[in-house]
Amino acid sequence: MADTASATVRSAITTVGVDDPTKRDLLKLVTGSAVVIGVGAIAWPFIDSMSPAKDVLALSSIEVDLAPIQEGQAITAVWRGKPIFLRNRSAQEIKEAEGTPLNQLIDPQSDADRVKPGKEKWLVVIGICTHLGCVPLGNKTSDPRGDFGGWFCPCHGSQYDTSGRVRHGPAPSNLGLPPYAFIGDTKIKIG
Amino acid sequence: MAGLHKSEFENPVVNWIDTRMPIFTMMQKEYGSFPTPKNFNYFWNFGALAMISLAIMIATGIFLAMNYTAHTTLAFDSVERIMRDVNYGWLLRYVHANGASMFFIVVYIHIFRALYYGSYKAPRELLFMLGVVILLLMMATAFMGYVLPWGQMSYWGATVITNLFSAIPIVGESIVTWLWGGFSVDNPTLNRFYSLHYLMPFMITGVVFLHIVALHITGSNNPLGIDVKTPQDTLPFHPYYTAKDSIGICVYLLVFAGLVFFAPNFLNHPDNYIPANPLVTPAHIVPEWYFLPYYAILRSVPNKLGGVILMFSSIAVLFFLPWLDTSPVRSSRFRPIYKQLILVMVASFLVLGYVGGKPPEGIYVVLGRVATAYWFLHFLVLLPILGKLEKPLPLPESIARPVVRRPPPGGGGGPLPQGATAKPMEKS
Amino acid sequence: MRAAALALGLLASAALAPCAFAQGHEAVRAPKESWSFNGPFGTFDRASMQRGFQVYKEVCSNCHSMKEMYYRNLTAIGLSEEQVKAIAASATVPGGTDDSGQPVERPALPSDHFRSPFANDKAARAANGGALPPDQSLIIKARENGSDYVHALLNGYRDPPPGVKVSEGQYYNEYFPGNQLAMAPPLQDGAVTYADGTQATVDQMSRDVVQFLTWTSNPELETRKRMGVKIVIFLAMMTGLTYAVKKKVWKDVH
């Protein structure tokens, strides 16, 4: 009985074609591989059905008109469920941001790398503190903006400058930059 | 009793697990070396096909549930979102919708196989009864599933079927209100149907497990209906029947793919693409095709309670089939009269299915009543009498030696071994 | 053998059952048309779909909603992103509330649903003599042989036969169940002007709009059929392979 059992086990292994290569049966090997391919192909629709659907993707990019934003002001747009800060920086603020030596920064990055060339006026950052995910204050002129004139996170006191770079911990890195492009003089497409 | 299992497996990991929990040995015993009659025909594929159907339904159902919203105002649109926006959502839904039909086709053929070859007779009565339980659970699951898209047929199907319970004297109305969770089919009804539609497939899985346990105790029946006597009568399940079942699975998937990809709404009713409207009943309301025969039985009785009782009895009668059929011979191959009657029985089922889709008027009412009458006559009167009157043909000696020593007169039909006697229940 | 025939019978009954649903009233059955999207290799006719969209936009959409469709879907009938944006922007949709909480309107975006002609079903009924123009998103799937039926219906307006009295506000149509419907003949020759120079006859417009509506009912049709052909070929090959394996496994039995 045990012999029959192990014989059948061996024949089972042969069927899927992973036994001793000298005893490999081409027909069973081909069939076995085709089954594996078929089952693999069936798995994909199930997996992919959990990826973002077309209606979700359709909302994954937004267009924002910057014209109504006054100099020194910032507004919040919502993109993929996240707050996006759009700030019209004054000449003074731009100068401060550009003039800061990189060695004074926690997460060194030049201001030029954080804005679009020729559009230094406009700062577009993801408004989520890189510490633990709170939304920093500073968009309204009445908000506390911290010591560096940018944003101040009320949760644990992180401070950001006018380029959205972290200047005072505990946040470890600068405010994130969403992918965006200017599609007009004062119109951007985020995403 | 306690103690480690002595595993035969050479792979160290498999051996380690198997020693502590001998599932590999169990699988090997039940699906590898399991002795299976060597003379199965392709009708014996349908058990495996039913299992595949159940697996497909559960898999697609789980992924559909991720995007479905069980609320009267959102259900229809959420299904359309699955069809239009969810990646491969249309595929999952069409597979699930047509999968229900495929499951019923497979199970009806599986049941026919059991009836034709007497698979319900001793010692397989319990096995058969568990099968009938599975059929009932399937019907409940399919009915509730059809309600979920919240189209016109969903809504009115739910209304009509739940109203069947109002036929029960005195408490009927209260039961219907309880089923609805309100005073008409509405959001509470949809929510509980969704919950139960998700639960019941797992109940089916449980009963299928019991069905297989019972099967592996008695062993399979076979086209000759005689008992296995010697090891020469059997083959190990693997690779013989795994190979044979694979062919069936491929053909099954071909038919399935034909439906899903080229005629996905062939078995559906157009009205279910109209959102449910509690104030307008569609001109012809009909259930899904697999319920049509029972629907015809329901309508063939002019009395409300009578129709409901008769409809439920038409399936309940199957529970008593092992004792209603008094013949000692299992397979119809050796029962010349039963072989004709079962054809009539199948015909009456098909006629009922046809009539169930027609308006209840004129000739359809007559046809429906005749077919209903035959259904009950067949099981309740003819089968008990037939066992006493019919003279079975001589049975072959064994599965391994079904061949007669002298050529059978006239050819065709089953083999007729000279001198063999009808002793099918004889234990080896 | 007989058993196998029986199995076929059972299958056939499954196939027959839906035919039983095809019960109309006195309505004439819509003649079978040959559509580009029929058959296992069927595809939509892009030019016809675009003309059909024009018919829908200029004629049907004055009364019929199409709630399941988004403007962004229109890229599938061969329109460019820019065209879709422009089409969307020509419609005004509710745009939430302004800072003082008042509802505002804004031009539609490609990610918006098609604008419905009426605010709700009651408004639609009130404007259409009590009859609700059905939503057209799924109209083809929601009617028996939908493509043929809608085409026939659009061409099926006739003078009522002698003795048939058509009620006030109703029109006689051969193909409509009950023969009287509240929709006035929506198409007349030249009702739209096609940019590609196609003659806008009633038959042409109805064919075009059916192409469009069949797509809105079955946006997955082309993908589905293409995938189906591949899968059927694969399964046919698998059937052959498993048959050969089975033969080999069983060769020593019997």
H-E order of chain C: HHHEEHHEEHH
- State the end-to-end distance of chain C: 19 Å
Compressed to H and E, one letter per element, the order of chain B equals HHEHHHHHHHEHHHHHH
Q: What value does the Rg of chain C take, in angstroms?
A: 24 Å
* Alpha-beta classification of chain B: mainly alpha
Distance between the termini of chain B: 30 Å
Structural category of chain C: mainly alpha
Oligomer: heterotrimer
**Total number of beta strands of chain B:** 2
Order of neighbouring strands in the sheet with most strands of chain B: 1-2
What helical percentage do the residues of chain C reach? 25-40%
Low-confidence stretches of chain C: 1-25
Report on the architecture of this protein:
The complex is a heterotrimer of chains A (191), B (428) and C (254). Chain A is of the alpha+beta class. Chain A is 27% helix and 21% strand. In chain A, the strands form 3 sheets. A 3-stranded antiparallel β-sheet of chain A has the order 1-9-8, with no helix packed on it. Chain A has a 3-stranded antiparallel β-sheet with strand order 2-3-4, with no helix packed on it. In chain A, strands 5-6-7 form a 3-stranded antiparallel β-sheet, with no helix packed on it. The longest helix of chain A has 23 residues. Chain B starts with 11 loop residues before the first helix and ends in a 39-residue tail after the last helix. Chain B is globular, with a radius of gyration of 24 Å. Helices cover 60% and strands 1% of the residues of chain B. The C terminus of chain B is likely disordered. Chain B contains 15 helices and 2 strands. With 428 residues, chain B is an all-alpha fold. Chain B has a two-stranded antiparallel ribbon. In chain C, the strands form 2 sheets. Chain C has a two-stranded antiparallel ribbon. The longest helix of chain C is centred in the last third of the chain and has 30 residues. Chain C is globular, with a radius of gyration of 24 Å. The N terminus of chain C is likely disordered.
